[in-house]
Amino acid sequence: MSDSLARSITGIRGTTRAQLEQLLTDAKRYAEGGDVRSVGDGRVATLLFAEDSTRTRCSFEMACHKLGIRPIVLGKSGSSMSKGETLLDTARLLEVIGSDVLVLRHSENGAADMLANTLRIPVLNAGDGTNEHPTQALLDAYTLQQAWGAFDGRTLAIVGDVLHSRVARSTAMALETLGATVRLCGPPSLCSAAPEGVKARCYHDIEEATEGVDAVIMLRIQRERMASSVSPDPDQYRTAYGMTAARAQRLPEHAVILHPAPMNRGVEIDSAVADGPRSRIFDQMKNGVWVRMSCLAHALAR
Ligand code: CP
């Protein structure tokens, strides 16, 4: 394996518990004001976001600023990708002009792996199609570690549009690797089987799936990835699978609620829950900065 490939993070699949724990430990060190002086050292990160993003893009950019890395931020619109330039040609250009690391969000499954296997600089996957979102999985794990302390013996339910969710796959793999038990839940059309690499069982009854859990992650209905004919009716979906205030009250007293966001408030999660005492949703967003600092530092380690 090349050095740049070893320093790439394109998925949770294939990572070990020790590697995940190291990334979480480094994130905690940054959260606590750990020394960042040696990381930036005049280096440049290109954040290539060929699919829309708010949290991931802004927190990677913030992570760069905190580490003293100079970020170049590029989208599909406003770049020559809109004229048909390929992803690979765009990435090669960014490499030859001097990027030290490439952060990629793309709609195609496997786009980050393809670049990591081709370029001589490390690649960090900021979400590729329905495949993986490893930095989201790490920030979910970090947030749950804050709530739980340790992962062993803990149970997490991931509820919603599992079929189209790269978060469900990456977060379930990360939490299982770290020692927790994961349950998946959603309507049969959106949660028929665990994604490849995930051991969790699929439930179709949210009350059964969330019984006795230590945390619930609610997922967004990804209408952009489904035909309008199969998109669930929002009111019926909320009744069957939404995290309403009444459902949240029935969870164990200590259970926390997460959501990768953006949220469809009033569909998969009610505002009373998203802004309520169990919610760790804005902690997740804050923790995204520490986790992405950890991933950038890993990619740029000499
Ligand atoms: N959770 C997440 O990936 O959000 P963005 O699409 O806003 O980056």
Lay out the secondary structure.
Blueprint: H1 3-6, H2 17-31, H3 37-40, E1 44-49, H4 55-67, E2 70-75, H5 87-96, E3 101-106, H6 111-116, E4 123-128, H7 134-148, E5 155-159, H8 166-177, E6 181-185, E7 201-203, H9 206-209, E8 215-218, H10 234-241, H11 245-250, E9 256-258, H12 271-274, H13 281-300
Bound molecules: phosphoric acid mono(formamide)ester.
Phosphoric acid mono(formamide)ester binds next to helix 4.
- Strands across the major sheet, in which order? 7-6-5-8-9
Q: Rg from C-alpha positions?
A: 19 Å
Shape field? globular
The CATH architecture category of the largest domain equals 3-Layer(aba) Sandwich
Top-tier CATH class of the largest domain: Alpha Beta
Describe the protein in words.
The protein has 302 residues and is of the alpha/beta class. It has two domains: 3-133 and 286-299, 3-Layer(aba) Sandwich (Rossmann fold), CATH 3.40.50.1370; 135-285, Rossmann fold. Helices cover 40% and strands 15% of the residues. The chain has helices spanning 3-6, 17-31, 37-40, 55-67, 87-96, 111-116, 134-148, 166-177, 206-209, 234-241, 245-250, 271-274, 281-300; strands spanning 44-49, 70-75, 101-106, 123-128, 155-159, 181-185, 201-203, 215-218, 256-258. The strands form two sheets. It has a five-stranded parallel β-sheet. α8 links the parallel β5 and β6 (181-185). α4 (55-67) packs across α13. It is globular. It starts with a helix and ends with a helix. Phosphoric acid mono(formamide)ester is lined by residues 53-56, 127, 136, 260-262.
